[in-house]
Amino acid sequence: MMVVDLVAAVLSFGVVYLMAGARVVKQYERGLVFRLGRLRPDVRAPGFTMIVPALDRLRKVNMQVVTMPIPAQEGITRDNVTVRVDAVVYFKVVHPADAIINVEDYRFAVLQVAQTSLRSIIGKSELDDLLSNREKLNEGLALMIDSPALGWGVQIDRVEIKDVSLPETMKRSMARQAEAARDRRARVINADAELQASKKLAQAAAVMGNTPGALQLRLLQTVTAVAAEKNSTLVFPFPVELLRFLERASQNADGATAPGTPGRAAGQVEEPPGGRTAGGRAPGDRRR
């Protein structure tokens, strides 16, 4: 009986020992074993592992990518504009031993470095760069955070600037500037259109000046376009050029009929109005 009891006690102790030393490391974790306060060189892989109870202490390190938001930092840009900028940093642990041994809390350390680097980027950049050239700023910010993080066993994957908050006065000023720029472009486009239209009209006027009948055809086209709208009143423009054309045509007709005018002999001189009366005297002559 004593032997059986001893065997049962040993088995019970073994079961308790195994249960006390059994550990499970998940797929996204790595295990570090500290034996009597000293780090063991081997890193425990995912799965089932054993440690010595009361002597070993297992520390699990998460190897997943950590998404950490950077609180909004207020600063003054290089062109003296006060802004608030917030960002987000993505990082992961690549050396579990360095992340546990070299720094007390690698998450807190990365957060503080990210805030300091973000304020430094704000002071070195201009407002236009913060609003439009964010990719370059993101790369510079990632390099600034990654330099001290390498000694902590942490790798910075990427850093993204999320939002840039501007004062209300600056927003109104930028809106007025954008509106003025759009107004200027509209005026330039309108003036360019007027210039091109004037050139085309000058060319059309030159063609119509060489061909007077083209003006009449254009006038008839205009009248047809106005009449097609079913208007009750028809405005018929009478251009000055048409009057001149008719005047020239009448002068040509008078010149063609002048040599054969009846009622006057050849060489006869026409008496001016108020000529001499019968007797050869002009009205108003007085005998002396």
From TrEMBL:
One of its GO terms (cellular component) is plasma membrane. The chain crosses the membrane at residues 6-25. Residues 255-275 have a biased composition (Low complexity). Residues 20-178 form the Band domain. It comes from the Bacteria. Signal peptide: none annotated. It holds the Pfam family Band_7. Residues 253-288 are annotated as: Disordered. The keyword Transmembrane applies. The keyword Signal does not apply. Keywords: Membrane, Transmembrane, Transmembrane helix. Belongs to the band 7/mec-2 family. This is Band 7 domain-containing protein.
